[in-house]
Write a structure and sequence with these properties.
mainly alpha
């Protein structure tokens, strides 16, 4: 809950920054909106990583209470429910590296086209279409259907109140951060976690299995924020999905004393190093 509080505090700080920057400076309006949008997008992406913790019932000892808390504290922002997300995410665990993986952003090469598609919503539409199809096939009753209208109304309220309060810079930064930069950070993070360095950019991994590949990014400050909720130790999560992210550092310390230490070290990297090694201009 302290980690969640950090995310919401960062959103408040961003709001204060957007209000405080003097717009009289050259390019002040553009700078303020862009910087605010990037920050809003980053911290919304940070908060949404805890939806993953909720998918594994780790918000509270009682599963029903865990789902309720996750929906109230996290899921509302993207208009989904943890129950819906769980269907998609568990398929990811079952089919990691296969053509029927439900979280398949890493099937794409990291290039300018990928970044543009992620920034301008193309990748979001692909993900929504895939998740809708998977949820329809699952034929499960979603006990969190109230989350979607709640999230929509919350975003409408934020935009409407800020507009009529003449907080136009905040309004623009929030919309751009939510619609553009949040999806960009989310897509980029998943690709960096699972894209095999030997993957062929000419191969369509929707038709051919990519193969399972997951990295460990370590406990650094940036890795712990960009890869919050245990995503910075994502390899360990895929080995033992039931372990809460709050215990992954203990799990890693134990495994480094076993024969698995060499595997962990082979997969250890940083987000920047991985980005630079995978990025291609075309």
């Amino acid at each position: 809950y302290l980690d969640l509080a950090l995310g919401y505090f960062a959103l408040i700080v961003t709001f204060a920054f957007v209000r405080a920057v003097p717009v009289e400076m050259d390019y002040g309006l553009l700078f303020t909106v862009l910087a605010g949008a990037i920050s809003f997008g980053f911290w919304i992406a940070y908060l949404q990583l805890f939806l993953h913790e909720g998918a594994h019932f780790n918000f509270a000892p009682d599963r029903g209470q865990s789902d309720f808390l996750c929906n109230i504290l996290v899921a509302w922002m993207i208009g989904t429910s943890v129950q819906q997300y769980r269907i998609t995410h568990f398929q990811h665990h079952r089919a990691l590296g296969k053509i029927n993986d439900s979280e398949s952003t890493y099937f794409s090469s990291l290039n300018l086209s990928f970044l543009i598609k992620a920034l301008f919503g193309v990748r979001v539409m692909e993900v929504l279409r895939s998740r809708t199809e998977l949820e329809a096939k699952a034929k499960r009753v979603d006990r969190g259907t109230w989350v979607r209208p709640m999230g929509l109304l919350a975003h409408i309220a934020i935009v409407t109140i800020s507009f009529f309060s003449r907080e136009l810079l905040f309004c623009a930064a929030w919309v751009l951060g939510t619609v553009m930069f949040f999806p960009l950070f989310g897509a980029l993070r998943q690709l960096l976690e699972h894209r095999d360095p030997s993957a062929d950019p000419c191969v369509d991994y929707n038709e051919h299995d990519h193969g399972a590949y997951t990295r460990v990014f370590g406990p650094g400050i940036f890795a712990s924020v960009f890869g919050a909720a245990g995503f910075n130790r994502h390899l360990l999560h895929h080995w033992e999905p039931q372990v809460s992210y709050t215990n992954l550092h203990e799990m890693e310390a134990y495994l480094l004393k076993t024969e698995l230490a060499s595997v962990i070290e082979q997969r250890r990297s940083t987000y920047l190093k991985t980005f630079l090694s995978l990025f291609r201009f075309t």
